[in-house]
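Hi, here's the filled form for the chain we discussed.

Project: internal
Contact: R.S.
Residues: 375
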Amino acid sequence: MDEKRKVVIIAGQLVVGGAERQLYLWLANLDRTKFVPTVITLHPGHEDYWENPIEELGIPLFRVPQKRLRWMRLIEIYKIIRPFKPDLIHAWHLFSSPYAGIAAKVMSCPSLGSHRDSYNIFKKSGLLGILAMKLTDAMLVNSNTTAERLRTAYPGRSDRIYSVQNAVLDDFLDRSQARKQLTNDFNLDPQKIWIGSMGRLDPKKRFDLLLEAFSRIENESFQLILIGDGPQKGKLVDLSVELGIAKKVCFTGEIPEASRLIKAFDVFTFTSFDEGLPNVILEAGAAGIPIITWDLPFYREVVWQDRLLVTPGDVETFASTLTSLLADPQTVSEISFLTRQKIINSFNLEHYIKNMTSLYDSLLTKESPSNRSIT
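And the returned structure, exactly as it came back:
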C-alpha cells in the first residue's frame, strides 16, 4: 500500500482494562505513514482512563453517548465517519461490532469486529454475537482457543476469523520499588510473602474461590493482595471476614497501570473460569512471577507447567500447590526464568504490531492470509 489508509476504530469503552491497553499500544505504535486512525468511544462522560492518552498521541477522539434508541446512536456514528471517508472500520469490542458492520456497509468499506473474551462469553452474548458475525466482514479475537471454537461454530466464516494474541511490555518497576510503593500506600508488611492477584472484582473472576483457597493456608507469613475494584468488592470483603482471613487480605481498589507493580508479588494467582487471553497472566509471566491458575485451554496458551495448573474449582489443591511451590525457592527461580523467556519471546510488542498490521493489510487489499491465526 503506497497511500495512507484511513481507519476508524469504534471502542465500546476506554476504561482501565486489558483490552483498552492493547488498543493504546496499537495506536501508539502503528505505522502512521500507512494508517491514519480516528477513534470513537461509546462510553463518554465517565472520564475513562485511556481517553486522554489517546488524544495525546494526536489521534482524533470522538465521543458518542448512549441514546434512547440504538439507531439514533448509529446516526451519530455515521455523521462522524462520513467526512472521514474511512478505508476500514474496526470495532475494538464485541458491543461495538454491529455498529461498525452497519456503518461500513453504508460507507462501502470493509469492517472488522472484535471479541476479547472467551467463546462461552461470546455464546452468552446471544443476538449481539450473532449480529457481530453477520454484519462484519471479519472477526478478530486475542485467543487461539476462542478462535478455534468460533471457527467450529461458524464454519462458513472460518477463513475470516483471525487470532492476534496480546502484547506485553517489559516496563515493570523493580521488586524493591514495587514493594515499597505498596507498603507505603497500604501499610503492608514487606517481610511477609505476598500472594497477588488483580482484575475487576465481579462474579466472573471467582475471587471468592481464591479467598477460600487462601483460608486453607495456615502459614501466618502469607499476605493476599487483591488489586482492582468492582461490584463484588463488598461481598468479597465480607467473605474474608467470614473466613477469618480479613487481617491477611488487602483490597487495594483500582490502581491505574497496576501491572507495573506486579514484581512486588512472590506468586501470582488467578481464579477466573472463563477468559480470552488475560493480559494479567501475560504480565505476571513477563515479570518473572510464577503463576498458579486453573487447568483450562486459554491458560495453557501461556502457562505450560502442569504442576501450576489446578483442576478448576479445587480450592484444596490450589492452596496446597501454592504452599508447596513457595516452599521450594529453587523451583520458583527456574519457573520464573523459563516463563519470562517464553512470554517475552512470544508475546512481545514487535510481534503484536506486525500481526495487527498484517491483518489490516489483508482486509484493505481484500486478501485473506493463509494462516488464520496471525503469528
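Let me know if anything looks off before we file it.
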